[in-house]
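Show me a record, fold above all:
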Amino acid sequence: MIDQLETTILNALQFIYEELGWLGVTLVMVIENATGLTPSEVVLGFAGWMLIEAHNLPFSTVFLGGLFAAIGSVIGASLMYWAARLGGRPVVQRAAKIFRIDTRHIQRVEGMAEKYGVGFIFFGRLLPGIRTLVAIPAGLTGLSYPIFAAATFIGSYIWCTIFIGAGYFLGHEWHILSGIVKQAAPYALATAVIAGMGFLIWQLWMKKKAVPVKIEID
């Protein structure tokens, strides 16, 4: 079942996609990543069906669509990153009130970012519920923008391509993606935490390995 909110979103998406095509997907993903207001699984799944499957285009179009969506994701996430970096916590708190973002979610994301470092920026882009928030701790801590942008693009491209492809394969049933994401979210979070811990252990091991050994000669 599609609720009233998703119906409203779909009507808007249909108009945007009909007028702008894949540039419309880029535009919507900018908004989604800068505000967190639009569910990306709906945006991308609908694009996979309407812009590819419904037009009988080849499956390879999915990878091109993922590129357009990932570019929009980076632009939107960059807006959030620079707002946090230049405006600091007061701007973040003000934006959270405007867009009705639970500050507890932001605090949780900050804690995970502090614990797992830059690896969390990549893995965080693959986590439903917090993927649009990872730009905030990156900006607050002054993480290098090129590193942030690269991690965001790679993670976003994977996420976007998967859901566009799912929309392509599911066809008219693409809307079930929303329910699947909600059910899979806890497992995705657990997987990401384990992966993040592995990344952290690998970093510590590499640093330890790089420490030169001093040899004293009598």
